[in-house]
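Our example copied in:
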Amino acid sequence: MIMVEGSSLKEKIISLRKENKSYNEISILLNCSKAVISYHCINLKINNPIIKNIIITKNDVEKIKILCKEKKIKDVAKLFKCYSNTKKK
């Protein structure tokens, strides 16, 4: 994340959103409400992050199975940077 000190909240929100950060992540990083983030992103038409395709290898599938026995599915999904409802094709 590249930000110049003294950047306005709006500029920081835009920068983080362009890095595909979620409203929740931005809210935590900048200590501001999701409503403020939404306001700036919707006005600038950057409210939808780019969705990336994630390729999970057979090795990853085995790791996921092991981790799911030890952790919550939501936590495992975060480790692999995907959503817990991602399905195997």
In short: The longest helix spans residues 58-70. The chain has two domains: 9-43, 53-89.
